[in-house]
Amino acid sequence: MIEFRGVHKTYANGTKALRDVNINIEKGEFVFIVGASGAGKSTFLKLIMHEEVPTAGEVIVNGYKLSKLKRREIPYLRRTMGIVFQDFRLINTMTVFDNVAFAMRVTGASKREVRKRVPYILGLVGLENKARSYPMELSGGEQQRVSLARALVNNPALIIADEPTGNIDPELSYEIMELLTEINRRGTTVLVVTHEHDLVSHFHRRVIVIEDGTVVSDVPQEQPAVPVSEPANDVVADVLDTIQSAPKGSPADAVIDDIVNGGDAQ
Amino acid sequence: MRLSSLGYLIKEGFRNIKQNAFMAVASILVLVSCLLLSGSAYLVFVNIESAFDYVYSQNVAVVFAAETADEAAVAALGEQIRALSNVSDVELISKEDTLTRYEGVIPEATFEQLQGTNNPFLDSYKVTFIDLDDAVFKSTIQSIKDMPNVDDVSYNGDIAATLAHLRSVVMLIGGVVIIVLLFVSLFIISNTIKLTVYSRRLEIGIMKSVGATKAFIRLPFMWEGMVLGFAAGLLSYGIMHLIYTRLMAMPALGFISFTSLSVTGLSTVMPVWAELLVGFLVIGVLTGMLGSGLSMGRYLKEESGVSSD
Question: Would the CB atoms of A162 and B211 count as touching at under 8 Å?
Fold first, then answer.
C-alpha cells in the first residue's frame, strides 16, 4: 500500500528532512506516525501525497511508483487517498453538503451519484442534520467530521489524517479517532500523524516514531516497544514510555474518563 | 470533461464572483479604465482620420479630355486613368453634365443654342487619389498628362503633400499610444487577477488535495474572467458613448475644431461604434480569460500548495 525504500529528502535550503527511511505499510493497517514538530512527519506525508519528491530512494503509494509518475497522473494518485488536515481546510462559502460533494464533482461524478452518496457519508460521520450549515456555524469537532466525510466520499483505499485532533477539544478527539477506527475496520488503510501520546497509547495500534528525519521506532500493533536506537529527546522518550506502560485491553471509557477528569495517562 | 461537470464549473464561476464581489468590482473597474483610455485614443484617432478622409475627398484633380476626342476615345481615357495604381476613383463628368449645371443660370435661349455640337465645354474626369505623398502624387499627375487625348489637368499640389505628411505622423502616434495603453492594461489586469488568485490559494490547494485536474481548477477562474471582461466591455462602451455624445453636444470645446468635421462625417456613423463595442467586448473577454488562466501559474503546479499555502 505504502512503501518507502531508502528515502532521503533534503530541501533546497540544506535541511535534511528525512534520512534513509524504510517503511512498509500493508493494506488494511492502522498506523500512527509520531514525532515532535520538525521531526520530518510533514515531509513524510508530503512525499506520500507527491507534494514533494524524494532526493533519493523510492516511494510507492497505492500501486503508483511515484518516481515514474507523470505530472498529469498526480490528480489521479490523489483520488486514491482521502486527506484530513489539522486545520480542516473546508471552503467557508460552501455548505457542508457542497464541501463534501466537491470532492466527488472533481472526479466527474454525476449529480445523481452525488445526491445519493453525500447524505450517506454525512450520516456515517453523524452530520446528516448539518448538510445545509456552513463550516463557520459548526464546532471544531463537527468541522473535522466534515473534513473526514470529504476524505471518505470517493471511497479511497487510504485515509491520511494530519494531526486530525490538533485543533479540537480533547474529548472530541476520541470521537474522531473512533470514527477513523470504524473506517479502518471496514477495510480502509488509515495513517494518523499526531503528537498526542494519549491517543496513541489509547488505541493500541502500530506506531512509527520519526525523530530527526529517521525512523527511531516501528512498533507493531499490541506489542511492547523496542527502540531501535536511544530516544533522541524527551518527547520521544515520553511517547515510548507511554506506549509501553499503557494498560493492555483496558476499556476505552475508563481511559477517556481518566483523561477528561484530569488523570494523566503517562 | 462531462457536460454535468461543465455546468457545475460555470455555476462555480458565478458563485466565485458573488463570493468575491469586492475583487470582482475592482477587476471590472481596472479593466474599464484601461478600455476607456484605449477607446478614447482610438476615437481621437478615428476622428483625425475621418477629418483627413474628408479633406482627401476634396482634393481631386480634374482631367479635361481634348476637344477632338470622340466618345470612344474619352471612354478609353477613363479606363486608362482608372488603371493607374495611385487612383482610387474616377468619375466621368460629360460636357452635357457640365452644361446641365447652367440650366436656369444662363438665359434659356442661349442654353438651347448651346445644346449638341455647340457645347463649349470639355468632357472631364474627376480623379481621386490614394497616396498624396508629393513625389508619388506628382508622378501620377505627370503620367495622366502624358496620356493621349488629354487637354489639361487641374490640381492643387501643395495641400496634397502637407496632408500626406501629417497623416502619416498622426497614424504613427495614434498607433503607438494605443499599443502602449493596451500593454499597460494587460499588466494591470494580470496583477489584479494574480491578487484574486492569491486570495483564493486555500481553495485551490483543497481542489488539488482532492485530486482536481489543472483544467478543472482553471475553468471556473477563466469563466469568471470572461464574465467580468464582458461586463467591463459593456460598461466601457456605455460610458464612452455617453461621454462622447455629451462632448459633441458642446460646441464651445476647443478641440472640436477638428472633430466637428466628423459630426456629419465618419465617426458618428454606426460602424465606428459597432467596431468599438466589438473591440471592447473581445478585448475584455480575452484579457479576462487569458489573464486569469495564465496568471494562475504557480498555484496550479501539481506538486505544491496541497497541505500548506
Answer: no
